[in-house]
Amino acid sequence: MPTIGVQQLRANTAEVLRNVQQEQTEYVVTRKGQPVARLLPVAKTEPPALDSEAHNEWAEFARQLQEAGRRWPKGLSTQRLMDEIRG
């Protein structure tokens, strides 16, 4: 895994990110010669499929959100509500 200094990364950010994305290159980022971070490509994976129970739970959650939206007082922001609750 190649190393890259912070200054070099700053000067060549677009090129380094292109290498990470296209070539799947991983870097160890260093500051004053000491490792401080790893720069890794994001895995291209599909989110897991929901089973029917989870799908039904999300559908119920969405239904409850819609109902709350219908009942929400006009002109009342969530920020104002939170401020009132906090006193």
Write a concise synopsis of the structure shown.
The chain has 87 residues and is of the alpha+beta class. Helix content is 53%, strand content 16%.
Give a verbal description of the structure.
The structure is a single chain. The protein is of the alpha+beta class and 87 residues long. The protein folds into two domains: 3-39; 52-86. The protein has four helices and three strands; from the N terminus they run E-H-H-E-E-H-H. It has helices spanning 6-11, 13-23, 52-71, 78-86; strands at 3-5, 27-31, 34-39. Strands 1-2-3 form a three-stranded mixed sheet. Strand 2 and strand 3 (34-39) form a beta hairpin. The longest helix is centred in the last third of the chain and has 20 residues, at 52-71. The termini are far apart. The mean pLDDT is 92.
